[in-house]
Design a protein that fits this description.
heterodimer; A: mainly alpha; 14 helices; 77% helix; globular; B: mainly alpha; MetI-like fold; elongated
Chain lengths: 332, 291
């Protein structure tokens, strides 16, 4: 029953978001045919033929139905700029974005949850204050500025990390997963893995810190709520070591809110990606979209926004399910 | 006790807020930035668009080569950073306040309507809200701005389009609770029309949570505007925005760290102040959080 409910909500949102993305086309100034033709001269008949080919002469509901039908088959039209199917262009850039997002998410979880746990379970106020201050700064710092500061300090001043880009195309490991760090390890090339990691470090940190700040906040609050519970007091009373109490009892109960927030924050990362990839010239989907905007390559922008929204909706769906698994009280 | 009973909730909240030194200081800081923004033409030492390549990347006053007439140094085109910061406050705060105010008025009105009337309007508006929440914020903003093109009015449209949902949800929830209250019942019993009950009975009673949430959202809107401007999708030159200033500094990072550092710092300070002030405001308005 619950699942059916959530699934129907998911479907509503998916249909709604495609409708919204479809409607975004109206916001585009100018006629798509004219944009596509750019400066080329065309006769009336040619323009009409192109309109027909692009389905622009059909009724709106018909066009929307076609748009969804094609999208379901992975057909988002052709990129104006690359003269190739949009989905291929996006697919090429996807591994770089996945690698960056995964690295950032792992980093955020590893920083945010332990620190939150630490702050929420200490009676001393100082560490708690410091963690709260850190998370306030973390959520208030614009990502694009954080990225530039990191670049300024670690690349420009101390030359510890490369300024931008991913690993050079010539010396990449053979593509298995297309995640360069993992591919390097598979290829048995620790030197390559290190180069890949060095390129990855700053953009991943930039993306991770805001998420870590939020996770810290959530875990801290959850831990503070759990600490006075009888079973924690009992566990301490029967002499369980502190570490065991923290990881077995407190973390278990603080995890449910942290996980659902993590899912939402990964969604926020999708937007953050566009900025971070632009700053660090990371060759992922985010930068592709920003470039496409300036090239007025609307089919690509449209497809990317739709894919992001679909991914975000699925992520929320999964987070809801995880929440129920981790916190059986919600299911009851 | 008897004295505080005679006071309006607003006065009480203000008294409490004043006793919260951190939040109050933050509110004063924001007020000061707002005054600076308003008085920009009078206080800015130079014309923010006045470029002179002879002053290109002149450092701040405390570094060698800096001088007092350009205290925070100059950018890659030799424009005075302090003056640009002062003018940039107009865009950052202006858009922050305007977008949140407009979104709150629209969202609260629709929220009261949906919560009070229920039925089809409620179902429809709630679905639209769900759909808009289905987009990650920045993806929506960048995507729509990318389609519509940059510019002040497009930023406002984009951010309001995404932002009204917040006020809508709060107002709708509060209205659902309020419509079961005795005072609404009483108004209905003496034959008030629905529009009047919504306007004169429900609206004033749900206003404080809506306003509190609005102030919390301001920090977010300021960051969104700055992010769009950073990408070049925001206000266009000669208008100055802090996000755009950070972007200008990106190209001269190695030769002039000050170009991007000061506007970034300005954004961060304003956002921190907005966050802390709104936290204080929330505590002041929520009797359960008052100590």
């Amino acid at each position: 029953m619950w699942l059916a409910n959530r699934a129907s909500h998911l479907i509503t949102v998916l249909i709604g978001t495609s409708l919204a993305v479809f409607a975004m086309m109206w916001a585009t100034p100018g006629d798509p045919v004219q944009i596509m033709l750019a400066d080329q001269r065309a006769t009336r008949a040619q323009v009409a033929a192109l309109r027909h080919e692009m389905g622009l002469d059909l009724s709106m509901p018909h066009r929307f139905a076609l748009f969804v039908w094609h999208a379901l088959h992975g057909d988002f039209g052709r990129s104006f700029f690359h003269h190739r199917p949009v989905i291929d262009v996006i697919g090429e850039r996807l591994p770089a974005t996945i690698e960056l997002t995964l690295a950032a998410a792992i980093m955020a979880l590893l920083i945010g949850i332990p620190l939150g746990l630490y702050a929420g379970t200490r009676r001393v106020r100082l560490p708690d204050r410091i963690v709260s201050l850190m998370s306030l700064i973390g959520v208030s710092m614009p990502g694009f500025w954080l990225g530039l500061l990191l670049m300024l300090v670690f690349s420009v001043t101390f030359h510890l990390f490369p300024v931008s880009g991913r690993m050079g195309g010539g010396d990449q490991p053979p593509g298995v997963t297309h995640l360069l760090v993992i591919d390097s390890v598979i290829a048995g090339r620790p030197d390559m893995a290190l180069t890949a990691l060095r390129h990855l470090a700053l953009p991943a940190i930039t993306l991770a810190l805001p998420m870590a700040a939020v996770l810290m906040q959530v875990t801290r609050t959850a831990a503070m709520e759990v600490m006075p519970a009888d079973y924690i007091v009992f566990a301490a009373a029967k002499g369980l070591p502190r570490r065991r109490i923290l990881f077995l009892h407190v973390l278990k109960n603080a995890l449910a809110p942290a996980v659902s927030v993590a899912a939402i924050e990964i969604g926020a990362m999708l937007g953050g990606n566009m900025i971070v990839e632009t700053i660090f010239s990371w060759p992922g989907v985010g930068r592709l979209v920003v470039e496409a905007i300036f090239d007025r390559n609307y089919p690509l922008v449209q497809a990317a926004v739709l894919l992001y929204a679909v991914f975000y909706a699925l992520l929320n769906f999964v987070a809801d399910m995880l929440y129920r698994v981790l916190d059986p009280r919600v299911a009851a | 006790m008897s004295a505080s009973l005679a006071l309006s909730p607003g006065t009480l909240a203000f008294r409490h807020f004043r006793r919260d030194p951190l939040a109050f200081a933050c509110a004063l800081f924001l007020l000061m930035v707002a005054l600076i923004a308003i008085a920009a033409p009078a206080i800015a030492p130079h014309d923010p668009a006045d470029a002179d390549l002879l002053r290109r990347l002149q450092p701040p006053v405390w570094m060698s080569g800096g001088d007092w007439s350009y205290p925070l140094g100059c950018d890659g085109l030799g424009r005075d950073i302090l003056s640009r910061l002062i003018y940039g406050a107009r865009i950052s705060l202006g858009i922050g306040v305007f977008v949140v105010a407009l979104a709150t008025v629209i969202g609260a009105t629709l929220g009261v309507l949906a919560g009070f009337v229920r039925g089809l309007p409620d179902a429809l508006l709630s679905r639209i809200a769900d759909i808009l929440l289905g987009f990650p914020y920045l993806v929506f903003a960048i995507g729509l701005m990318g389609m519509m093109g940059p510019g002040l009015s497009n930023i406002i449209i984009t951010l309001v389009l995404k932002e009204w949902v917040v006020a809508f949800r709060v107002a709708r929830g509060e209205t659902l609770a309020a419509r079961e209250q005795d005072y609404v019942e009483a108004a209905r019993a003496i034959g008030c029309r629905r529009a009047r009950i919504m306007r004169d009975e429900v609206m004033p009673n749900i206003l404080s949570p809506v306003v509190v949430v609005a102030t919390i959202r301001m920090a977010n809107v300021i960051i969104m505007e700055a992010s769009l401007s950073f990408l070049g999708l925001g206000v266009q030159p000669p208008a100055v925005s802090w996000g755009g200033m950070v972007a200008d500094g990106r190209d001269v990072l190695a030769g002039g760290w000050w170009v991007s550092t000061f506007p970034g710092l300005a954004i961060m300070l304003v956002v921190i102040a907005a966050n802390l002030a709104s936290q204080g405001l929330r505590e002041a308005f929520d009797p359960r959080l008052r100590q």
